[in-house]
Structures
1.
Amino acid sequence: METTKYDAIILDLALPPMGPEEVTHWIANNAERLPPIIVITGNTDPMMRQRCIASGACHYFTKEDAQSFPHLFFKILYDEYLKSYATKGKAAP
């Protein structure tokens, strides 16, 4: 994260030892720019979804959402591409 720029981060909530808030906080403090963080999990708890979004995740997918994930993943990358053009003062193609 300190030397490589990523287009996106896909975070599985089942990965120990840190939770989504700690991982997002670490990424925000160690990345030159914060890439979109996408959480994917089997946890359908609405409170967990809110906590992940509040901690910096841009999207939260459950296994129930798996069918739409590929389409939405590329939309997220495209939206980030457009944002990077806008911040550089260029018109997006």
2.
Amino acid sequence: MRRQGFTIIEMTVLVAVIGGCAALVYPVVRSEAMRGHRAAAEEQCRQIAVGLERFLADREGQREPIPTDPRSGKRLTWLRGPGELPASIPFAEGRKAGSVDRVLRERDPHAAVWKGPYAEVVSPDPWGHALVVNLDGLVDRDEHTWILSAGRNGIVDTPANSEEIRGDDVGRILRRP
């Protein structure tokens, strides 16, 4: 008479086969998830770049190309989005920071022309960090204006004067003619 059920050896073989399959599939799934996060961050940076370009086009010919905070009226040298700030922002030390959301969504009372809002709601990058924007390129033609996500590690690896994105950062360079 044959008993019903599985032996311990059969169960061990089954668990080993399932574990082996999972070990083969996991890196592929993780790679695709990372690719999806990077694509989402690139799209967020693109949307901010388009909004900032429209904002700056409206301010063309004004004396100060650098945006001011719509609430405080202070000139801003870099911007941030909502979310946790990245661990390191090399171009932000000692500089006045403002909100990307405020500049692109609220009317600047000091601007003669404002045709906004210039962007939809700005959200944190896929890793929960704030997007950051360096505005040095608006004043110094040798610099670039960057829109960055600090990437998975949460550290901005790209210096303001770099001509390429570095480390695991994701972003866009805003070039002005």
3.
Amino acid sequence: MVLRLLLGLVALTLAGAVVAGTALPVAGALLGAATFGGLRLAVPLGWFLGRSAVGWRDLVHGVALALLVAAVAALVASGIRRRWREPIAFGPWLCLGTLVAGVA
């Protein structure tokens, strides 16, 4: 599912770059994917942030905001459940944080 997300984002970014006549969105997206790092979900999220960032500072701030939102939400969710031995789904919160950072 994550690979399909990444492939879709790559296709949309490439199509947008062709229409705009510039490779700058692709370069930003690649930088975003590299900055966010990770092997799975973080790469497409970084691609999204890199595509929407104006400069590298926006990208770093976006990654920090996404991680902050995800961490706070995961801590709140774990506090509500009161069961520390069960795993917490971090991916949905990371997606929400990335969306907030990309829109802001």
